[in-house]
Amino acid sequence: MVVDSCLDRESRQPIALKYLTELGIDVATSVKLFVITHWHDDHLKGAADILSACRDAKFVCSEALRSTEFIQFVRICSTRSFMVSSGVDEFDRIFEKLQRRSTGERPESVGPDLWAIADRRLLYLPKNNRSFNVEVFALSPSDTAMTLALSEIGQLLPRAGTPKRRAVAQRPNHVSVALWIIVGNLNILLGSDLENHRDKRLGWRAVVLSPNRPRGRAFVVKVPHHGSSNAYYHKMWSEMTTPEAAALLTPFASGKRPLPSQDDVEKIRSHTSQIYCTGRPQGWRPPRRDSTVDKTVREIARTRRVVHGPMGQVRLRLSAQRGLDDPTIELFGEAQHLT
Question: Is residue 275 within a helix (H) or strand (E), and if so which, with residue range?
Fold first, then answer.
């Protein structure tokens, strides 16, 4: 299973394909599910290449993108009616790949194999030659998030006589697809960029309160939205994860305030000390330059940081047969344990 996509900065190839190929996996036949959680650039780049390579995989994206308004929006953006797009150009490539897969079908009927919405099972693999079942469920978006999303997408469509403007991805991330994975007796929670909201019909409150979501507690958690405070909901942790669960997160250093902040990390630490990050949460130190240049820059900028540093990787492996007793966690590159 592959969830979202990003590019290797050197080869400009999707990292997931590079990683799985190096493990000796035939991605064409072995990948059974490919999920795009939402259409922000940092989750989408290279997705069309993954879709093309993983020919046997079911392709899944958020139900919020099912609307005719979104499809129309993608097609309009492909004609450059907007200045630049945020993930939309990649979706245009995805639609082209899906069209080629679906030879003979009407263009308007072409789309993902499954649309993700709260409490829908996306994959079921029975035991067969294994000693365990595999299941994947979507935990979001909720029905209310869907209603809001359709309104927002409609507002993005250009109107005659107005200036060309920038295509902006939806904000906040209520339409992100959070996932619940069951492998034997192991539960894994992938939080995507789903945020918290005071409205119990949206975000993590809606997930926790849903009577139809899968039960149990996750031993592994992909921390939502880079660990930011707007994605933290204490009941997600207290009701859906085990004590001392392995919390895996990615930093976001290119914003005005890098994520996660120290306060964000402390909130997560109240639930587990096993926090692993794929990079440095506060960004990287800028390179040293001529002393005169450095002095001038210090006089102009209060702080400086490199926002795109070396990429790291956190790899956690568990045996479905041995259960939770023997986890292996390995850190590569800039990845670190946030002690």
Answer: strand 275-277
Alpha-carbon distance 332 to 330, whole Å? 7
Residue 26: how many other CB atoms lie within 10 Å: 11
The reply to whether 83 falls in a domain is yes
Alpha helices, DSSP H, located in 23-142: 27-30, 47-53, 68-78, 88-101
What is the domain extent for residue 64?
A: 1-129+140-171
The pTM assigned to this predicted structure is 0.84
Cα of first residue to Cα of last residue in the chain, in angstroms, is: 30
Which class for 330: exposed (0-12), middle (13-18), buried (19 or more C-beta within 10 A)?
exposed
Q: Burial of 76 by CB count in 10 Å (0-12 exposed, 13-18 middle, 19+ buried)?
A: middle
Length of the chain: 339
Cβ neighbours for 257, distance < 8 A, ≥ 6 positions apart? none
| Residue 164 belongs to a domain | yes
What is the distance between the alpha carbons of residues 94 and 19, in angstroms, rounded to a whole number?
Answer: 21
Q: What is the pLDDT of residues 68-106, one digit of tens each?
A: 556 555 555 555 554 445 566 777 788 788 877 776 666
Distances from the Cα of 126 to the Cα of 113, 132, 182, 214, 321, angstroms? 20, 7, 12, 17, 15
b (16+ CB within 10 A) / e for 147-186: ebbbebbeebeeeeeeeeeebebbebbbbbbbbbbbbbeb
Residue 82 and residue 167 in contact, taking contact as beta carbons nearer than 8 Å: yes
CA atoms in the 13 A half-sphere facing the CB of 190: 18
Q: For the segment 248-300, what is each residue's pLDDT rounded down to a tens digit? A: 999 987 777 888 999 999 999 999 999 999 988 877 677 777 777 777 877 78
Q: For residue 69, tell me if it sits in a domain.
A: yes
Q: Would residue 18 count as lying in a domain? A: yes
Q: How many domains does the chain have?
A: 1
Q: What is the mean pLDDT of the chain?
A: 83
